[in-house]
Write a structure and sequence with these properties.
Layout lengths: L2 H12 L5 H8 L3 H13 L3 E8 L7 E7 L5 H6 L6 E7 L4 E7 L2 H12 L5 E4 L10 H11 L6 H8 L3 H13 L3 E7 L8 E9 L3 H8 L2 E8 L2 E9 L2 H12 L4 E7 L1 E6 L1 H19 L8
Antiparallel strand pairs: 1-6, 2-4, 2-5, 3-4, 3-11, 7-9, 7-10, 8-9
């Protein structure tokens, strides 16, 4: 790992579907150099794939993030994907779980998952709800095509919808720019032969400018509003610098905690997500058959 690799990973967190040329323009490297570096990151298991993030508000649901401690087997980790309304599960390096639930009733969802796992979560966070405009059948079809392969080549997206490239490009751009969806890299808990890249969970009200004064390079990956929590992609020269920076963050006013968070594996409940998306497609298609049905 070096600083250029970190800049590439940060660019992927902005939009993992962008071209090698686009990434290269941001980090001052050629497209072939970007391709080579990404290949090396994959071979070293630092880059383990890509995930499609969908704003749960488009389903009329709230996103609840639940945290569970304790060591688990991979079989136990996989089992959680079958729980009601679970959209994503993260198996932490220390053995704990982070479970993302899309629900209409957060209290009921917490109780239900606690009963399923036979334990109470050690923490929870709610992602802020946003107001997004209605989506069309085409929008939902694009999302459905990306669930299993978020970096599906553009030509395949065009083929799956049967529409023209300009139309598909316009709708895809709208979905990404509005942050209705986001395609992010999935990173493993691996320290390369150079600098260390890691994620840091900061609980408390603190701006990114304050974070960067201490950590230098840091990219916001995700945030919640209750409690206010930021998940950051960070870079340090070594373990000592990472530890020092984390301790300094904890001393800042308004910061309740700052915890290094390393993922062992991230899985998405694609069957559940497909069911929600296709339910929306069916509802819109049925509406179109009505006298006052909307347009695609």
């Amino acid at each position: 790992m070096d600083s250029k690799d970190f800049e590439i990973l940060a660019a992927l967190h902005e939009d993992a579907r962008q071209s090698y040329r686009s990434i290269g323009h941001q980090v001052s490297l050629t497209a072939p150099a970007i391709r080579e570096r990404l290949s090396r990151l994959k071979q070293s298991n630092i880059l383990r794939g890509y995930g499609l993030w969908i704003d749960s508000c488009v389903f009329g649901r709230e996103e609840v993030v639940l945290f569970f401690r304790g060591e688990r087997t991979r079989q136990e980790f996989l089992k959680v994907l079958g729980a009601t309304d679970v959209a994503r599960v993260v198996w932490k390096l220390e053995g704990g779980l982070t479970v993302v639930v899309w629900t209409r009733d957060p209290t009921e969802a917490i109780e239900r998952l606690s009963a399923f796992l036979k334990e109470t979560p050690t923490g929870r966070a709610l992602t802020e709800r946003r107001s997004l405009g209605p989506l069309t059948v085409l929008d939902w079809e694009l999302i459905d095509a990306l669930v299993d392969d978020p970096v599906l080549p553009f030509n395949n997206l065009v083929e799956s919808t049967g529409l023209g490239p300009k139309t598909v490009r316009r709708h895809l751009r709208m979905l990404l720019q509005s942050k209705t969806i986001a395609v992010h890299p999935l990173l493993g808990a691996v320290e390369g032969s150079g600098e260390l890249v890691y994620t840091l969970a900061v609980d408390g009200k603190i701006g990114m400018s304050e974070v960067r004064k201490i950590l230098g390079a840091a990219t916001l990956i995700h945030q919640t509003h209750d409690p206010p929590m930021k998940m950051l992609l960070c870079q340090s020269r070594d373990l000592g610098e990472m530890t020092t920076g984390t301790m300094e963050l904890r001393k800042l006013p308004g910061v309740n905690s700052a915890t290094v968070s390393l993922n062992r594996e991230v899985l998405f409940a694609n069957k559940f997500i497909h069911s929600l998306v296709r339910e929306k497609i069916l509802a819109l298609q049925n509406a179109r058959t009505q006298p006052d049905g909307g347009n695609r």
